[in-house]
Amino acid sequence: MSRNPRYDILFEPVRIGPVTAPNRFYQTPHALGTGNAMPHTRAAMREVRAEGGWGVVNTGYCSIHPSSDDAPLPYCRLWDDEDIPVHALMVDAVHRHGALAGVELWHGGSDPGNRFTRVTPMSPSGVPVHRTYPGWMGLATPRPMDLGDIRELRGWYVDAARRARSAGFDIVYVYAGMGYAPYEFLLPQRNRRTDAYGGSLANRTRLIREILEDMKEAIGETCAVAVRFSTDALLEIPSEELPSEAHEIVALLAEVPDLWDVKSADWTVETASARFGEEGAQEPWTEFVKPLTTKPVVGVGRFTSPDEMVRQVRRGVMDLIGAARPSIADPFLPRKIDEGREDEIRECIGCNICVSSYHDGVPVRCTQNPTMGEEWRRGWHPERIPPGYPATCILIVGAGPAGLECGRALGQRGFKVTLAEAREDLGGRVTIESTLPGLSTWARVRDYRIHQIQTMANVDVYRGSLLTAQDVLDFGCDHAVIATGARWTREILDAEGDPAPGFASDAVYTPDEILAGAELDGPVVIYDFDHYYMGSCLAELLRRRGHEVTIVTPANAVSAWTFMNNELVRIRERMIELGVGIVTEHRVTDFRDGTARLTSVYRGGDESSIPSESLVVVGVRARNDELFRDLTADPKRFADAGIASVRSIGDCRAPGAIVHAVHSGHECARTIEADDGVEPVAWERSRL
Ligand code: ADP
Ligand code: SF4
């Protein structure tokens, strides 16, 4: 198929200083979870984006000096020449596909704690940064920088830029956003200097100007020098000439960098999940830049729709369509648009599991794209998969995310696949959960896979087919895959934090029952020790239905795990906005006669009661593995039926998040012929 001419504009080359991007698809810098420690993993994760048509592929934040150390979070570094080969590996991989490679040079100022290097952090005026969340807290405070420090900092940027050029990078950034050193110089609340680097806006902008000019002089003939700039706090500061200091900074530096990459300073806003931000939600922080400069502008907004991308360019919001998450979910997004296959795009669902991987300190993983992070160590490719024997017949029971992904990937491999689903609709939990407030994009997990399966003549789908063990045996397949999911239980937590039988009351509900339409009486208590989205989503749903709702959780925050995917603050704000009651660090220890009894999780803590006609327990999920256990209780039975293997996948194997189910389904499809379902995995090792 050929490209729709409507999208031609997205494939125009864009000049960036001395280099030219082959198109407008720009993978913005984003953390990958590999740092320098996994060079092969990292190179492969970036290469796949270049292969998929992204015209520019950037690194994540890359420290220029040991005084900017974000350990234990995985960041890259270019501290000395020995760090160059790690980057060259990635650059070569990106160049193999005709894309430009960029590096985001970073000095964090007061932001990183320098926990590993133990160098005292430094910042314009040594103003301590006070954080509220443990994950971002540090005990070190920065020291104020003197003029010698500023001179040195400029020198480190130049040294790192030269190393970047040696590694082969085409675009070299100055990261002047998100609370990092050059950005701190812009902020009056962090920059209290009275010398040439403080006070007036021209003075506060001086350091960025100098760094950009130094770098241009050092490497500007062959490399583009870009600036990444955060605008939100500065948009709030009025200026005399222009609407805000953000406008004025762009006007002052307009033609100095070769490219403007603009975004919010708040990572939880920049990476707003779909629950808290629509496609294009970043526009307020970006749209004012283009009229102030002739240099190309890039912005992000979780863009997956080519029509919206075209609109962004035509409306003059940006020249290059920046993307981190859409490029993770579908590394081949540009190629698919180019080849007229935009209906095959695996759209990002905005769940932020990728963000959580970075916080976990592991290579980025993705709910939609199970191959992300597996490119090097397992050789998985997002679009290609080894063929199988077409005569081999595989029966999959259950069409949730695990079953659908397994069916799709087995179908792609060419096997003869039958997918049987008890319900009339496909998608399992994503179909049900995408009806929760803010989660409608999650249905993309289902829709992408159904669309693919519909094009495969070798995959048959049977809806409304509740299979028994005997049905599976009678069906006569070579392999059976059981993907029958999991269910929420009424179990609660005991004093040790282990699940225990729940309360004997008809007014105790599970999320499954609420999602199936159960009517309940208020006031409602939601006892949430799952700590992810379900508790707060149900609170939102029930509150919007008019119930009085209180969330009780043993954790110290509502949906405490969502610190990992950057939703924590937004969820709390949503609960406050809706008037949902919140009781943290308590367990529900009794529920009867219209009352829930709460006990502090701390020894010597308080006990209290709140009115509650209904209790929703959100904590433990149990495997729907009765069919699997029936089939495997006697291996001879299925062997006699000619079935070589019976496997469980997804939540039926071990209840988890959707990302686990999709990965499990994909892994099963790649290893279906292996006796044990295990494939060799390569590890990157430090060499002595
Ligand atoms: P996962 O996340 O592991 O894919 P889900 O719970 O989303 O799990 O999906 C499991 C699917 O399996 C559901 O759509 C459910 O209707 C279906 N299912 C469960 N038991 C059977 C069965 N015996 N026969 C056919 N389908 C089943
Ligand atoms: Fe998008 Fe979720 Fe994948 Fe991240 S993990 S890229 S948010 S689908």
Q: Would you give an account of this structure?
A:
- Helix 3 packs parallel to helix 5 and helix 14 runs parallel beside helix 16.
- By secondary structure, the chain is of the alpha/beta class.
- The model has no long low-confidence stretch (mean pLDDT 96).
- Helix content is 31%, strand content 18%.
- The protein is globular and about 80 Å long.
- The chain binds adenosine-5'-diphosphate and iron/sulfur cluster (SF4).
- The site of adenosine-5'-diphosphate has 26 residues, from helix 14, helix 15 and helix 23.
Write a brief caption for the model.
The protein is of the alpha/beta class and 688 residues long. Helix content is 31%, strand content 18%.
| Major sheet attributes | 8 strands, parallel, barrel
What characteristic shape results from the CA principal axes? Answer: globular
- Radius of gyration from the CA trace? 27 Å
Helix content: 25-40%
Q: Order of strands across the biggest sheet?
A: 3-4-6-9-10-11-12-13
Helix/sheet category:
alpha/beta
Distance between the termini: 51 Å
Number of helices: 24
Question: Runs with pLDDT <50, length 5+?
Answer: none
Mean pLDDT, rounded to whole units?
96
Q: What percentage of the residues does DSSP assign to strands (E)?
A: 15-25%
List the ions, cofactors and other small molecules found in this model.
adenosine-5'-diphosphate, iron/sulfur cluster
Number of strands: 30
